[in-house]
Every structure is written in C-alpha cells, then in structure tokens.
Amino acid sequence: MFTGIVSDVGEVVALEPRADGLRRLTIACSYDRASIAIGASIACSGPCLTVVETGTYARRTSFAVDAAAETLAVTTAGRWSAGTRINLERALKIGDELGGHLVSGHVDGIVEVLARENLPDMARMTLRVPASLARFIAAKGSVALDGVSLTVNEVDQDKFSVLIIPHTLAVTTLGAIRPGDALNLEVDLMARYAARLIEARSM
After folding, report:
1. CATH number of the domain enclosing 133
2. Average pLDDT, whole number, for the chain?
3. Cβ neighbours of 187 (radius 10 Å)
4. I need a labelling partner for 147 at 20 to 30 A (CA). Which of 22, 90, 97, 104 fits?
5. What is the dihedral of CA 151, 156, 159, 164, to 10 degrees?
6. Do 154 and 163 touch, CB atoms closer than 8 A?
C-alpha cells in the first residue's frame, strides 16, 4: 500500500526487452541503495513494481523492475523511454504518516490532460477519464494521478479537474505536464468498493 505522497523523482536510464513481453526497466533515484531490498515494492508513477536488482548509475542509486506485458499495455509504462522522469514512492510501513489517501499501486486506466490553467497560487488541470471509470470520480473525492494523491475539484460527465499547489508541482513530475499528455489513474479504493456493493445489491 501507498499514500500518494511522492518521495523522489526518478529517471528511467535503461530498458531491456525480456521474454513473454516483459520489459526490465532500470531507474536512477536518490534513495540509499542499502535501504532498497530485493523484492521491495516501489510505486513508479502509479503502478506498483517489484525491485529485482539494485546498483548505481552515474553516482546515483539505481534499481531495476520488471514490467509485465499487461502493465505495459494498460499504463503509461509502455511509453517510457530513457530519460523519462517518474514519481517514486516507497511502500507504506505500519506507523507511517498517512498524508494522502490509501493507494494500492494498481492503475485503473489512463487519463488525457485536456487543459492546464496556471493560476497565481496553483495550477488547474482538466482531464478526460475513460467512460468506464467516470462513475468512480466524485467532487471532493480522491484520485491518484501518476502516483500523486489529489482531490477532485469539479466533475462534468467524463471530465474532471484538480487543483495542484506549487509544492506538488515542484516535487513531482506534474509540474511539466501539458495538454495532450497521458497520466496513470487510480480511483479511490472506497469508491470502487462502494460501487461494487451497489452492483451486488441490484443483482
């Protein structure tokens, strides 16, 4: 589990195709190499991926993860290349502060950035969500976009907006986001379970 509070911005430094559509990604970061265990879970711009190797790259810590064909198909990981910057978050430990909201690291779909408006003290982004996921988006509810916990501002059918403060823009990859970009979306766990309960009652 994660909280959607990004602790580092990493960089994809190598990609290696493997068997069965698997792709090994090597990511440079500022984490202490000794603190990254083989088998640890790290959220990489949304999807939770398992560390299979650690090392160094240009005097920085690096770790490698294997992205399965399904992950590459349903998240933006399939579009990453050398130099892509990604939001990183280590797995939540018992006793850690829950500063965002509970995030599983299981991406539900990809949203398109329709517009960005730079306001005096924040940025407003308007996004289009796949129709199948629109019912999970609610004003004042939570979403994770590229692994970042955000509060939904307004909803209009398959479109919704979020307001992003300067600190978040500065310490995540969201500061560089522009219209036309694609972001990984994870809907709120509570919204998903509530919808499932309603569906079960109507059967």
Report:
1. 2.40.30.20
2. 94
3. 23
4. 22
5. -30
6. no
